[in-house]
Amino acid sequence: MVIRDEIIILTIKFTWNFKGESKMAKIIIDYDECDACGECVDVCPMEVLIIVDGKLEVQHPEECNECEVCMDVCPNECIEVEED
Ligand code: SF4
Ligand code: SF4
């Protein structure tokens, strides 16, 4: 049912936004190990991460939902997400 699906999606978005506003995640990148492969960028559902001029940057930390998918896919284990 379309309306019900939309309510569920809005509820999920509200939960993510509420979490982001109350506690901003701290995203720590070990630049000695990061080779800017972009795998974390590709999987991040909130578009928190971006590669700029060959370097990984955190563009929207307030949007992070702490799903930790970026940590799971990183081949160099050089990104960490913590609650601030
Ligand atoms: S997946 Fe790991 S190595 Fe690749 S850009 Fe992200 S933090 Fe850097
Ligand atoms: S924890 Fe999830 S939302 Fe946050 S930066 Fe990593 S992949 Fe993106």
Automatic annotation (TrEMBL):
Domain 4Fe-4S ferredoxin-type: start-end pairs: 25-54, 55-84
Lineage: Archaea, Methanobacteriati, Methanobacteriota, Methanomada group, Methanobacteria
PANTHER family noted in UniProt: ADENYLYLSULFATE REDUCTASE, BETA SUBUNIT (PTHR43687), FERREDOXIN III (PTHR43687:SF1)
Domain of life: Archaea
Gene3D superfamilies from the UniProt entry: 3.30.70.20
Keywords on record: 4Fe-4S, Iron, Iron-sulfur, Metal-binding
InterPro entries with a match to the protein in the record: 4Fe4S_Fe-S-bd, 4Fe4S_Fe_S_CS, Fe-S_Ferredoxin
Originating species: Methanothermobacter defluvii
One GO MF term: metal ion binding
Protein name (database record): 4Fe-4S dicluster protein
Pfam families: Fer4_10 (PF13237)
